[in-house]
Every structure is written in C-alpha cells, then in structure tokens.
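[job 4417] fold queue: 2 targets
>>> target A
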Amino acid sequence: MKFPTASTPLRMARRLAYRNFAIGSRLRYLAYSRSRDRTKQPLLVYQMGKVGSSTVVNSLSRYPLDYEVFQVHFLGRDWIRKVQKQFREASRVHGRFIADEHLFASEYLRNQMDRGSRDGRWKIITLIRDPIARNISGFFQAFPIYFAAEAAELEKEEAPMEEQMPRLVDLFVNKFQRHEVPLEWFDVHLEPQFGIDVYSRPFPTGDGYQRFENDNAELLLLRLEDLDRCGPRAIGEFLGIPDFQLLNANVGDEKEYSSAYSRFRKEIRLTADYVDRMHDSKFMKHFYSGEERRALRDKWLRADPVGAGDAS
C-alpha cells in the first residue's frame, strides 16, 4: 500500500498510517514467515540490543551453516504486543509505516515455540555490555520510536545539531524509561523462556564468555568488551566452525547518525547517582570485576566521557 504523497495533509497521512499498520504488519509478517527455511535448526542471537549482535550475525552469514540465524530481543507474547503498539504509534506520528524485522522474527519464533513445532534444544548466543554505554547507544538509535513526537518536532524544526543537543541530553537523562533494561533483561527475557539462570554460577571475567545448557537450550554468553579477544574461538567451538572469524559490523562511524551520536557522547554529563545505580546492580557485580567497575565509573564521571562506543 502506498501512503499519500507529500502534498497530502500530514494529518491524513498519519491517520492512514495508524489505521493500516495492522494490515501492513500482517502482510510483512506473512512474507517473512514464508521465506524461512524450516529444514534448518534455528540459531538465536537473543540479546538486549546494542551489545554487538550485528557483528555476530553478519559474521555468521559468511559461513555455510546448518542453522537459520534469528536476531531477536524478546520472545514473550506480551512484549511482542507492547512493541507492536510502539511501532503503531510511531507510524501514526511520522505518517508512514514503521516496523522492524526483529519484531517479525520474534513473532515467528514465538509461534514456533507455542506450537512445539521443532525438535531438539534451542541453540542461543547472547551478549552483554556495560549498561551505560548500551543505554546511550540504544537511546540514540531508537529515538524516533521511543520519542516519536519529539523526533518529528525536531525534524520539522530543522535546527542545527548544536541547538538540538541539550534537548536530546535532557530526554536521555530525565525521560528515557529504558535505563533498567540491561539490568533486568536476563530475568525478564531469558530465564522465563528457556529456564537458564545466568546468575547461577560466577562469570569468568578473565575468559570473557561462558556456556550454559539444560534440557531445553544450549547458551553461549559473550561479553562485548572481550568479543574481539575471545569471540572467534568461543563461537567457533559452540557451533563447530573451525577458524571462525568476526567481521565488524554496524560501527557508529559508518551510520547516518554518527556525527550527532559522537557529539551526544561528548556532551552527555552523568550524575554519580546514575552511574552508581547502574554499576552497583546485580548485573554489573556479576559480570564485571571490582577493578573493571571502578575503571568504568571513572570513565563515565570524567569531564569528557568520549569513547562510549557503539554496537548493535
């Protein structure tokens, strides 16, 4: 379906986008579902987002696998409905259909799980990252979705980036409601779906990765900060791929928003309360040593916290 041209009043376009989101979403899901290779075992790159998953997925695409790779962030039916609602509202505000293939992948896999239509254990790769760096990257990339009205207003104003930056910083610090996502993701999204508790035994910070398994799933957990060092060997052993190599992907400097993102990182000022809330969490204490947490705290509280990095 084609949306109205630019000459059509924006209000009408927004109504049509909102009204027809369900139709467009259903058609795209059906196309996605029909294109899946059901002869292959699913390999889930299942993670919280902005933790290096695109690097893993793009690297895997270079190898002939007996798996079909799915990159997803949530599998619970309630979360699928929640994200559908967010995309529907963003479509209404921006006056065009907005959705993400991750959403269709989640729905497809959820349907497979509900039907019990596959045999064997699930094969899963997940990743973790310093939650503050992850939150900044996630906020900036998903800004048009989480802050659809503000994004549309900023786009309409066409103000120089230096004038927009204070408002973006304020939105992140005071109105972004997803700061707790990395701290809670494993309890909310992994254990309920696959019965694996990643906190059940100490994480080997020196190795940078860890494996888990039960009757339902096999899981490889990788720490982004160690991905270049340990990722090739850990993933190669997990999937039986000799001499596996990582191909960097989704680097911030290659993205459309890289200039604005770099400026945002330079201008963001975080309070000690916020940094301590993130770094004193169960998540950080489990996956990062005391020395690592102190170094990260010093980085985020210094005058110019450049180097937050970017990953997907």
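>>> target B
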Amino acid sequence: MPRSVRQVPGSGALEGALQDWFRGRLASNARAEATPRDCPAPTPNDTALLRLGPGLVDRSDRAILEVHGKDRAGWLHNLTTNQVKPLRPGDGNYAFAINAKGRILFDLVVLVRGDCVWLSLDQRFRETALAHLNKYIIMEDVTLLDRSGELTCVGLCGRRAPELLAAGETGPTTNAPLFANLDLTCCGIPLTLVRDDFCGPWAVDLIVPSSVAVDVACGLAARSAVPVSADAVEVCRVEAGIPWPGREITDEYLPAETGLLARAVSFNKGCYLGQEIVERMRARQVVARHLVGLRLEGESLPPPGASVLDAGGNTIGTATSLCASAAAGGGIALAYVRSGRHTPGTPVRIAGANGSVPASVAALPFVPCET
C-alpha cells in the first residue's frame, strides 16, 4: 500500500478496508458485516516495506491453546523439545512436538503466563495438537482449553515497528527477547505482546480478544502502520530461510533436518517424547536430508512439492516453497535434499510441468535480516 494512505481524511475509509482485510478470518465479528469502503489495498510482495515497517500483518491463522493446572509446566516439558520448566511468567520458547519416532507433529511457541501457559501454533495443526496433547493427560492436574475463537493475533513488523509501539502506550519493546510475552495497552486496548520474528525482520504478535482485533488494527494503521499482504510475508520468510508450517514443517521431517535445532531443541532438559531419536541423530551427526536454499535460473517457478533432480535426472529431494524475489535477484526456493547433495553451489534441476528448471544449492538466508 502506498505511504500516502496515511493522508486518508478521517478513519472511515481505512477502517472499512481493514474490516474487509480481516473479514475472512473474523467471521464472528459483527463489524465484519459492514460494507467495505474505497481504500488502497495491501500491496503484494512489498517485502521492502515489510522489512522497514511498520507493516501490519493478518496473523489470525494462529491458534491459541491454554493450559491450566499445577502440573502444566512438567507435563509440557515432557511433550516438547525445548525447555519449559525453567521458564517464568513473561518467558517463552519455540519448540517442536514430535512423536515417538521423532517426526514433527507441529511446531509451537510456548508462552508462560501468570496462572497458565499459552501455546501459539498454526491453525492447520490445531486439531492435531488438541488430539495429541489430550492423549497424554492421564493422571496429571492439567486442563487444556482451545482459546482460538476468543483470541486473535495481529502482527506488526519491520525496523520502524518498535518506534510506533514506543510512541504509544506500550513503552519500549525493542529489547524484548524472542518469545517474551508482555501484557500492555495499545490503541487503548489491553493485549499481550509476543516478540516473534516470524518472517525474518523484527516483529511482534499482538494477541487480542477477537472482538476488538479490527479496532487494534485500525488504531495501528492510524499511527502509520501499513497493511502488508500474505504474499509479502511469504517472500520475506523464504528470503530469510525460515521453515513454515505445512511446507517445511510436517510429519515427513525430523527436527535435525529443519536447521532449527539451536532454536527449537534443548539437549540438556532430560527425557521427553521422541527424545531418543533426536539425541541419536545429534550424537551420530548423520541426517538423511537437509533444508537448503535453491537459486533458480530463468523466470519459471515450479509448484511446491516439485522434485529436485541431480544431473542424471535422479530425484534427490523436494522443493517445498518457491517465490520470485527482487532482493535475491530472481527465483528462489527452499528444499529438502539428500545429504551429500546439499553443498552450496551444487547444480540441480527442479521438475516442472514444461520441463525441468536449472538451479543451484545456495546457503541460507538468501537475504540477511536486520532485526
């Protein structure tokens, strides 16, 4: 969206556009029934704006589960790959939930609150997460609630985003560590801020009651935040080499293959479900495949799921996410390829409907992030 959107007289047009922006995600919000009014739409693929900010991102595809009970910390500690027990209110961690074979069921952000723990995860994994977690409530004093219909995430991204927040009621947030959660007031509405650089640049999720999500978005837009499309988020996160739920994070893959061990796995927390497989792979330093970048030649972009081929036409992997990137200078992709074929510079081809596309393995990230 052009920066001139800030000059729209009054808030009506902007509010109408933001209501329309949230409509598909917040069908239960009565305000979403309002007739949309004329206003510039979010600009696709505006990754430069997303990095600079403040960019406003619809993050209502996040589910929020809530865990209560005196055994909640130990119970979660035993079911996720990262530390939970040592965390204090306001702390958070990124982790995987894996099965007994070590395969990823879903990824999540663990947010320790005063009297409960929130689990933030992709909506696509909500049913899987509920079934998996409920299965392991046996004798523990634990209650699991689904708050996804009541709470919504609004994302705010970019290097200028902390300035916008600091200029309001929130106070300084620039130095908040990753996955810290803070209760504060923004645009006159109490909410929870979570530091989560979900697509590469500095970013936060603002967790708000769904009934006032549009009000928060409109308030931020009135203070110079500009709505950014999902396409821009996708390009930016591929440029940053960030695995995404449903693409690079599925039950086809193991934690060691994602490149996220340092962020998502603690090797000194003790036992947890699937821990033996994770520890064995680390000890042997052997994985079947690696998540890598691919630089494509030409303008053709094969679809996600396309096979990655070696010079002899043998399948050596799968391209999981592909996009055109001005910052990276052309077509780029994330792909899982076999060990031994993952060295940067290795020539490959990606199968497409009209023939294979030449590419080469590239180091990640394609575009370094300034956070």
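[job 4417] complete. Note on B: Residues 1-15, 23-44 have pLDDT under 50 and may be disordered.
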